[in-house]
Specification:
With 421 residues, this protein is an alpha+beta fold. The chain contains 15 helices and 15 strands. It has 3 domains: 108 residues, Orthogonal Bundle (Arc Repressor Mutant, subunit A), CATH 1.10.10; 223 residues, no CATH class; 48 residues, no CATH class. The strands form 4 sheets. The chain has a 7-stranded mixed sheet with strand order 7-3-8-13-12-14-15.
């Protein structure tokens, strides 16, 4: 009984801190949060239809299979809680969480190191970026691995990887390393009602500012397109990041940080080493730079790369089978493509791109750039060039990357990349 009372006290205290931070704004999100606080305090977990009625004013005709407003806002609230506890509330020994699949708040106790437990310090956030659950996880990976010194015998596998042409110039300079994760902005369509009816991903609209600019140019859409504070990351980015972070971990505290592409500061492109991890379609502001001196260009969709030297078109077959039952149309598999690029920046920094046309290609590339034997093959093909790019063909089946082969490795000329156009 004592633990229940303690949890109730913690619930109230944490709720006040979260409200005071202002992270939930003054919208439906704060109403949803307050409703869940009271329900949790009363020991109840409301159904989706109850939330729809009490928080969003829905009638008894509300159909959970046709209207996702509750799930959208629950997702957004979960993201905001993660954002709060990764910034203003990161020193808290407890936190409020929304368990997956449930509409209630729970108290989670963290096992913190003694130094943190005794410090009593609270740290604010210098950035108000749209950090999602996947980024919070990525940041945690960065913190954990960034503080680990990898000790091996002479010319250990990790030393071989770090000494390869793909990594050595980036790791040997003294610039900070910014790991950039390709993310996707999502906005809502109310279909001229007051509630969001569907979520939209439009490649030309990559932020709230982009949406505002679009609506200024298309005022007829302004009455039903709206920012809902949502974004998403491909699951392959998390797997790729787990492979890549040990390569970047040097034990030098604070050298590595993780940001979303939508939150990348343009000045970092000049002053920091950049490591992009994500799909081709998530390159955002880096896309023109990456392909400025490339032999490749993106085709009519991000599922296609065109080799301008040979006019060969490389189409990814991965999206053709997305959402299909396992094995559907994939008796002999399908091809996806992985892309790697490394070139010098303007400020003595290095820019590295690890990408895929779809998930299978990205996962394969993460394996390539962390495997000593495959990096040796890539080094041989690069023929000692300091700046180069490579394309891999990946055999996929049932959303798995089965194997990949190097198709081409080609030198890059940084002067071509950075020359005014």
């Amino acid at each position: 009984m004592g633990e229940q009372i303690d949890d109730l006290t913690i619930l109230r205290q944490q709720a006040e801190l979260i409200r005071a931070s202002g992270i939930l704004g003054h919208s439906r999100l704060i109403r949803l949060f307050n409703f869940l606080v009271e329900c949790t305090a009363a020991g109840s977990a409301p159904k989706e239809a109850v939330i729809a009625a009490d928080v969003f004013g829905k009638t008894t005709a509300f159909d959970v299979s046709q209207d996702s407003i509750v799930r959208v806002y629950i997702h957004n609230l979960r993201r905001k809680l993660d954002q709060y506890y990764s910034a203003a509330g990161k020193a808290e020994p407890v936190r409020l969480v929304l368990p997956k699949g449930e509409y209630r708040l729970a108290v989670a106790r963290l096992e913190l190191p003694p130094a943190v437990q005794n410090s009593g310090a609270r740290h604010g956030s210098s950035r108000g970026s749209r950090v999602g659950i996947a980024l919070a996880l990525a940041t945690l990976v960065c913190i954990v691995l960034g503080g680990v010194a990898y000790v091996y015998g002479p010319r250990s596998p990790m030393q071989v990887v770090r000494g390869s042409a793909a990594w050595v110039r980036l790791l040997q300079n003294d610039k900070p390393i910014v790991v950039v994760i390709g993310d996707y902005y999502i906005f809502g369509d109310t279909e001229q009602t007051t509630d969001v009816k569907r979520l939209i991903r439009e490649f030309s609209i990559n932020s709230k500012d982009d949406l505002d600019q679009f609506l200024q140019q298309h005022p007829d859409q302004a009455d039903h397109f709206m920012d809902v504070g949502l974004g998403y990351l491909p699951t392959s980015s998390a797997f790729a990041l787990a492979d890549i972070m040990p390569v970047l971990a040097s034990g030098e505290k604070g050298r590595v940080r993780v940001v979303l592409m939508s939150a990348l500061n343009p000045s970092d492109i000049k002053s920091a080493n950049i490591v992009y991890v994500g799909l081709m379609s998530g390159l955002g502001a880096l896309q023109k730079l990456v392909f400025a001196g490339s032999r490749f260009r993106v085709g009519e969709s991000y599922d296609e790369l065109i080799d301008e030297k040979t006019d060969h078109h490389y189409f990814s077959g991965a999206s053709q089978y997305a959402g299909e039952p396992k094995g559907a149309g994939t008796q002999f598999g399908y091809h996806d493509y992985g892309f790697f690029s490394t070139f010098s920046g303007l400020g003595g920094n290095q820019i590295v791109v690890i990408a895929g046309t779809q998930d299978e290609g990205l996962r394969e590339m993460a394996e390539v750039v962390t495997d000593p034997a495959r990096l040796k093959q890539l080094d041989n093909q690069a023929a000692g060039k300091r700046d180069f790019e490579a394309l891999y063909e990946v055999l996929g089946m049932d959303s798995l990357d089965l194997n990949g082969k190097l198709i081409v490795a080609s030198p890059l000329n940084p002067n071509t990349i950075w020359s005014p156009r």
